[in-house]
Design goal:
The protein has 27 helices and 6 strands. The chain starts with a helix and ends with a helix. It has a two-stranded antiparallel sheet. It folds into 2 domains: about 290 residues, no CATH class; about 80 residues, no CATH class. The chain is mainly alpha-helical and about 475 residues long.
């Protein structure tokens, strides 16, 4: 019988992280739901991932010159971090403030942007927008390096209003123009080097120079501007202050958080609840998430398994479950490629809109990739997480009837709860073996292989593909 308390904890860990093993779930359950929420919301209290070992064995991930190295480095971090919500928020902001390597051709630049999201991703929305506006990768991505007082470039100003903070219908074309003028002079510190010595702007032999933010007062438009009904000699900071105070900003970010953490189906009442929390706290993301995770909107069983896992969530969650990639492995790039083949090339979103999520993650091609990837990861019996599952089964009892085995495997797969129809098919599959025994000794290898096969089938269920 399903344990709803454990089910709720599993739900929280799938949404605020990448899922959890059964021992992790049981440890969190001992702490209690509210205490676990608070722990997740304060990642700074957990030790940082020690990446020295990876950097030592993967020299390319020390310099992060190459795109594949950058992807692999983030994969290692998502899999091994003891700060799951920090990584989940970095992925959230990366999808919202989509910045792509394809245009930058600067792997370290996009990695540095994700570090910014880790540092401040649970902070104040106004501060996050400020960090974004000064981020060199974003400045290059949306051409603010080409935004000059005598020749404004509206690209960043337009996307800041449309895609990053308020949404269409909450500003005018004049607001876009004046927003762009306010951000003139916000550029990249090494731009002079790049423009004067363009022929040497290469990733070889030691990689590009690290970009930094630079403000050029002589290139800033100091004339009066009217923006969202207010008039003044505005700079970029003033624009962000005005945006962050707008009701449209509270609704915008509330809707995005609900979609990412709760359901692919919008909920106006829940969005209003989160928008009110935004206004009460001055746009504090941590407070908004606390209110969300403790609310019935989040905890209701009606929203469990109501989000399609993104490719990164699926790949990372399965690797964490299997205990894979806890130490350097040459094939880490294959794991990143799995997510790429499923439609999510992390650090290289297709457009400034980011990825289209929900059911658009799944089609006949990507579904095969999703199932095959998860089956391959969990099918490696040498991995410590898989070994731990097998040991757990053996320690509990010497033999299992088909229904007992299915229930035990669902529990080991992160406290997974499935529909009656799904469970019936799994039991039907396991029934072909009859009773599964871990004694005598010569039966162990065969039984272990059958458990792994059943776990691979669990990975293919609809419920496992959902968050």
């Amino acid at each position: 019988m399903a344990d709803n308390n454990l089910g709720l904890m599993a739900h929280l860990l799938r949404r605020a992280g990448f899922g959890a093993t059964l021992p992790e779930l049981e440890a969190y359950q001992t702490k209690g739901y509210e205490a676990t929420v608070e722990e997740l919301l304060h990642p700074e209290d957990a030790p940082e991932w020690n990446d020295d070992l990876v950097r030592r064995y993967h020299a390319d991930q020390n310099s992060i010159m190459y795109f594949e190295s950058a992807q692999s480095y983030w994969m290692y971090k998502m899999i091994n971090s003891q700060r799951p919500l920090e990584e989940k928020m970095a992925l959230f902001w990366h999808g919202l403030f989509a910045t792509a390597y394809g245009k930058l051709n600067h792997a370290k630049g996009v990695v540095n942007q994700t570090d910014t999201f880790r540092r401040n991703g649970l902070g104040n929305f106004r501060d996050i927008l400020m960090d974004l506006s000064k981020d060199p990768a974003m400045i290059f991505w949306l051409d603010n390096k080409d935004n000059h007082k005598d020749a404004p470039n509206e690209n960043y100003g337009r996307e800041l209003l449309e895609l990053f903070s308020m949404g269409i219908g909450n500003y005018t074309e004049d607001d876009v123009k004046n927003c762009a003028r306010a951000f003139t002079g916000w550029t990249i510190a090494n731009q002079d080097y790049m423009s004067v010595r363009a022929s040497r702007d290469s990733i070889w032999p030691s990689g590009r120079i690290d970009w930094q933010f630079k403000y050029l007062p002589e290139d800033h438009d100091e004339t009066e501007k009217t923006f969202l009904g207010r008039t003044g000699n505005f700079n970029g900071e003033d624009i962000i202050d005005i945006i962050a105070m707008r009701p449209a900003a509270s609704w915008f970010i509330a809707g995005r958080l609900y979609n990412y953490f709760v359901s692919d189906t919008p909920n106006e009442e829940a969005t209003s609840f989160l928008a009110e929390e935004y206004r009460k706290t001055g746009g504090d993301i941590r407070s908004m998430l606390r209110a969300l995770f403790l609310s019935d909107y989040f905890k209701s069983e009606n929203v469990w398994y109501s989000r399609v896992k993104s490719p990164a969530e699926l790949v990372v969650g399965t690797a964490r479950l299997a205990g894979s990639y806890q130490s350097p492995r040459w094939d880490i790039t294959n794991l990143a490629n799995d997510a790429n083949f499923m439609g999510q090339e992390i650090l290289n979103p297709p457009t400034v809109e980011g990825w289209h999520t929900g059911t658009e993650w799944v089609d006949t091609g990507t579904l095969v990739e999703r199932i095959n990837s998860a089956a391959l990861i969990i099918g490696d019996a040498t991995q410590p997480g898989v070994q731990g599952m097998l040991k757990n089964l053996k320690d509990r009892q010497d033999s299992y009837q088909p229904e007992e085995l299915v229930d035990a495997c669902l529990l080991l797969a992160g406290g997974l709860q499935v529909s009656d129809g799904t469970r019936d098919r799994l039991v039907e599959y396991a029934s072909a073996w009859g009773e599964l025994c871990f004694t005598p000794e010569d039966a162990v290898a065969c039984s272990e292989q059958r458990v792994i096969e059943l776990l691979q089938l669990v990975m293919a269920t609809r419920e496992y593909q959902m968050a």
